[in-house]
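ok new one. same drill as before - structure tokens go in, u give me an amino acid for every spot. 439 of them this time. try not to just spam alanines like last time pls lmao
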């Protein structure tokens, strides 16, 4: 693939992003763990331009979640117009070494999804890409998973892992990611050495900056924990589930927990929901102030019920964003939310909406429920709190009192403490930018 090299590379980047590019170029195998919303994708693309410009690589494979393929193609076109970026095509779910060589000859940046890994790696081992980039790399946190085992089978000289949440559940997440960088130097079991030792081992290989340190000009974020009482229909259903569990057939505790959380969101037979009542009010109040809202839920039923409520009112307009939608449907929903002033809210599942999107058109974030990991919840918020946001942001967390929901918070607090001890303690101060740029 011939490359029309620019005479000079002059990216319109923030100073901290330029230092991030410099750091990547100095580290062949590394974890870019910048806070969500600081442009990790842009920094990587800018670094790739320079690697090609200096003749250090001839091929690149980017592994991304399926929902981010379109975003990566768009960003490559915007930030590296001289590079050809293409999605790897898997006709009939098959791939061959010859197809891989052909793809490498046609494009500089090849994109595949994590689901593609199972059928890809055996066909590229003879001619591995010069660099592999794993976006949202926390998806590789389980050493025994098929995607983790697959990516270990190909040894490329360069490997960059991108994740704003390298620790989601346990220090083992970070130890596993570090072992992907250097399998002969680090092991997944390194987390057993303790947090301080693991932090010392990962420090040279991980770059972490937060919005507070590099973008103090971002508007303020106000977080509001709102306690709610269950609707009478919800309370009856909730108490009945607990009574049945205690007095009759004992099902698993996890199954009961999930049923109780579901009732807290919505009593499906009657449609009663104190949360949806409150969310509808928040959306309406925000719209009166010319503000848009994003509503997140890890379950789909509350989003569908809320959508039906909003559609029943002629002056309300919203878009739904869930995994069951085709890619073009998702893109259309996002475009309408961004561009149509009449579209007041985007109702998004955590699985689809919490990664890779930029939703700075909104400045109100509402959680129907929260995921087990505070990092995932933070990722969702940072779809709105990121570069390009110009309005103060309000985040509403809704919790039904005297239920399993208000007992979940201590667990979330413990997990956040682990993240802070391991990852936030590694964050670099702004003066690092000057040092890297000098290097």
């Amino acid at each position: 693939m011939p490359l029309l090299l620019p005479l000079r590379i002059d990216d319109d980047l923030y100073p901290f992003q330029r230092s991030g590019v410099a750091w990547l170029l100095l580290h062949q195998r590394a974890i870019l763990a910048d806070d969500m919303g600081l442009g990790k994708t842009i920094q990587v693309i800018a670094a790739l331009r320079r690697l090609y410009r200096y003749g250090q690589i001839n091929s690149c494979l980017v592994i991304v979640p399926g929902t981010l393929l379109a975003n990566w193609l768009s960003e490559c076109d915007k930030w590296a117009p001289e590079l050809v970026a293409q999605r790897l095509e898997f006709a009939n779910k098959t791939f061959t070494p010859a197809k891989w060589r052909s793809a490498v000859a046609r494009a500089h940046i090849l994109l595949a999804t994590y689901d593609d890994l199972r059928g890809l790696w055996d066909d590229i081992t003879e001619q591995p890409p010069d660099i592999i980039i794993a976006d949202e790399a926390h998806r590789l946190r389980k050493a025994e998973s098929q995607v983790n085992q697959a990516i270990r089978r190909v040894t490329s000289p360069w490997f960059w892992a991108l994740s704003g949440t390298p620790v989601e559940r346990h220090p083992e997440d970070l130890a596993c990611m570090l072992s992907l960088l250097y399998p002969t130097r680090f092991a997944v079991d390194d987390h057993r050495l303790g947090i301080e030792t693991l932090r010392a081992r990962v420090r040279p290989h991980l770059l972490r900056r937060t919005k507070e340190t590099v973008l103090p000009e971002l508007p303020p974020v106000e977080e509001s924990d709102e306690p709610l009482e269950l609707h009478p229909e919800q309370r009856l259903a909730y108490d009945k589930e607990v009574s049945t569990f205690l007095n009759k057939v004992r099902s698993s505790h996890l199954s009961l927990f999930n049923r109780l959380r579901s009732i807290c969101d919505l009593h499906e037979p009657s449609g009663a929901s104190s949360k949806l009542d409150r969310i509808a009010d928040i959306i309406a109040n925000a719209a009166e102030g010319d503000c848009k809202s994003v509503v997140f839920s890890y379950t789909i039923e509350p989003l569908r019920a809320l959508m039906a409520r909003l559609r029943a009112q002629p002056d309300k307009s919203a878009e739904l964003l869930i995994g069951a939608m085709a890619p073009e449907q998702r893109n259309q929903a996002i475009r309408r939310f961004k561009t149509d002033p009449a579209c007041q809210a985007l109702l998004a599942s955590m699985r689809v909406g919490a990664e890779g999107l930029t939703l700075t058109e909104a400045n109100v974030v509402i959680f129907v429920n929260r995921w087990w990991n505070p990092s995932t919840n933070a990722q969702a918020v940072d779809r709105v709190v990121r570069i390009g946001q110009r309005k103060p942001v309000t985040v509403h967390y809704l919790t039904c009192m005297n239920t399993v929901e208000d007992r979940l918070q201590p667990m979330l607090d413990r997990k956040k403490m682990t993240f802070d001890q391991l990852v936030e303690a590694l964050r670099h101060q702004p003066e690092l930018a000057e040092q890297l740029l000098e290097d």
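Confidence is low (pLDDT under 50) at residues 429-439. and btw Residues 405-422 form the longest helix (18 residues).
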